[in-house]
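Researcher: Re-running this chain for the archive, since the previous output was lost when a drive failed. Same request as before.
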Amino acid sequence: MAQLGGNDGVVLIYATFPSRQVASDIARALVEERLAACANVMAAMTSVYEWQGKIETTEEVPAVFKTRGDLSEAAVARLQSLHPYETPAILVLPVAGGFAPFLAWVAGQTGPR
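Model: Regenerated structure tokens:
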């Protein structure tokens, strides 16, 4: 039976992007800089929202970044600095638990070597 552990300080960062290419480029940057262990760039979706008094319908690409909680502020700042939107949707989501070896891998892949 697989062992499940606490979150070991792991968080998920959810963000949306204007295209798959932008999402992939930013995902690669955060992984290369060890601010995220990995990122999942998902299929495009339709977003409906109000922006500057007008209802918008836009195709966006969501991505989920896996990182440590103590790196989340730096990861969010870097993500925001690379993001083309004026006010990007970036959310840090807590992780209640998970597969202990995976959580340990996330911790090992982030931060200094």
